[in-house]
Amino acid sequence: MVNTNAFDYINVLEKAADAAWLRDQCIANNIANVDTPGYKRQDVDFESVLARELGHRRGESMDEKVSDVVLSRLNVTSYTDAAAYSYRTDRNNVDIENENVLLAQNQLKYQGILRGVSSEFENLQRVMK
To answer: Taking Cα atoms as reference points, which of 33, 25, 49, 14 lies closest to residue 102?
Structure first.
């Protein structure tokens, strides 16, 4: 990680890309275990972590908020979703249709994040010229 203000957005986008990658792995694992009795779906909640980190200081510009982000607070892990709840008799709580929608949504989000990183580097290149 580079510790200069010029890379603040890139560093946050990198954390978002890591979270999207982890979510993709969780969803793929959920799909693979759709028929495993007792399996509980896994997920990642980067969005609320990022919102909490950015939202703790109201009335500031996004540039100021992003420059104050502590990147180590944006590290996320997977969690078990609705561990005690299941509508199926085998206690598995994976809904294959929902997982497929989440997978497509996450892939679009990941592509958008990568475009954002690319755009930030293009902006840096323009500034350096």
So the answer is: 25
CA atoms within 13 A on the CB side of 29: 15
Question: What are the residue boundaries of the structural domains of the chain, listed by start?
Answer: 5-128
Q: Residue 123 — very low, low, confident or very high, per pLDDT cuts 50/70/90? A: confident
Q: What is the pTM of this model?
A: 0.84
16 half-sphere exposure, CB direction, 13 A CA radius: 25
Residue 119, token pair as written in the block = 């755009």
Q: How far apart are CA 15 and CA 7, in angstroms?
A: 12
pLDDT at 74: 92
DSSP reduced 3-state for 78:
strand
Question: Kindly report the CA angle at 3 between 64 and 110, in degrees rounded to 5?
Answer: 75
